[in-house]
């Protein structure tokens, strides 16, 4: 008999999540049937979308998630015992999976020397997001200036390095000087601005004196309005995320100043991006990122919290900006 531990959304978040908003339960799992396999979580992901998506969940339902898991029992020859998978399983330690339906688990390639947790980060959903969004939407050209908000996070550190590969000037927006210095020293960013310091507008003017051609937006809100006001004619904006709004009341979103006149004057293009439609092309980004990592062109960092019981803590801390790179929990 296998006992799974799982986290439920005990009550809807009111502003930033609190540890009391979650409940951990234990569940006896039945024997697996033909076509099924049993997987044990090794690493679990905590992602910003879980906060934004939570308002659609009913209280008492499992927290949605994804994980890298080891197959420990199997009656499915495509998913043999001992292999590792990436799967959209909830916040739970053990899962019985049948492979029909949306978001079918997939076997991870042999990562050799690389950490298995990369299957949730640079070789997982955030990597796939960066890969299919930035080049296609921002269309960066050599010599152009690229600004990235959420620059020291899971998606941002990949986009920054890809922008450098395109010979762009790359400035990151971060919530601390430590993070800003880290991405400059370790990931080749040309500079950073700290949105928690005074006068972001002036900081940006100094960091991007020739204006901004591409904006990769992970945060939205006033930070983004300030960036958009400094964009050059025919600039391109990729909307990847809106984290500055996730902790706010869905029926009472934050008021931000209007950008339309700036967009009209500068003939800017803005496009939103969803990674879900690209889920079935994940091996394209995995293979490209593996190649770049092995060639030394792409580096990565993760913030790992130990212990399944600390899932809520890791999630809360990621939303507070305590992570550098991808926030992951090791069971
Ligand atoms: N469109 C899609 O398909 C996908 C979208 N996303 C989106 O991309 C964005 C980044 O995700 P990801 O890289 O996984 O997360 P990160 O690893 O960047 O972690 C979140 C970071 O957001 C920053 N942050 C938190 N609150 C605020 C705020 N109020 N204003 C500005 N920044 C804030 C913090 O960094 P700091 O200390 O710098 O403030 C924090 O570390 C999110 O908006 C997410 O929803 C992610 C994956 C797929
Ligand atoms: C719910 C707000 C999503 C904000 C952007 C984001 O972080 C998206 C992440 C997706 C990632 O690819 C894995 C997912 O399942 C995330 C999306 C989940 C909900 C999408 C709802 C879209 C909608 O509101 O129509």
From TrEMBL:
SUPFAM superfamilies noted in UniProt: GroES-like, NAD(P)-binding Rossmann-fold domains
Family: Belongs to the NADP-dependent oxidoreductase L4BD family.
Annotated Enoyl reductase (ER) domain residues: 17-329
Record-given protein name: Prostaglandin reductase 1
UniProt GO cellular component terms: cytoplasm
Alphabetized UniProt keyword annotations: Acetylation, Cytoplasm, Fatty acid metabolism, Hydroxylation, Lipid metabolism, NADP, Oxidoreductase, Phosphoprotein, Prostaglandin metabolism
Species annotation: Pyrocoelia pectoralis
Catalytic activity, reaction form: leukotriene B4 + NADP(+) = 12-oxo-leukotriene B4 + NADPH + H(+); octanal + NADP(+) = (2E)-octenal + NADPH + H(+); 13,14-dihydro-15-oxo-prostaglandin E1 + NADP(+) = 15-oxoprostaglandin E1 + NADPH + H(+); dodecanal + NADP(+) = (2E)-dodecenal + NADPH + H(+)
Oligomeric and partner information: Monomer or homodimer.
Assigned EC number: 1.3.1.48, 1.3.1.74
Single annotated GO MF: 2-alkenal reductase [NAD(P)H] activity
BP terms from Gene Ontology: prostaglandin metabolic process
InterPro entries given in the database record: ADH-like_C, ADH_N_2, ER, GroES-like_sf, MDR_fam, NAD(P)-bd_dom_sf, PTGR1
Lineage: Eukaryota, Metazoa, Ecdysozoa, Arthropoda, Hexapoda
Localization, UniProt: Cytoplasm
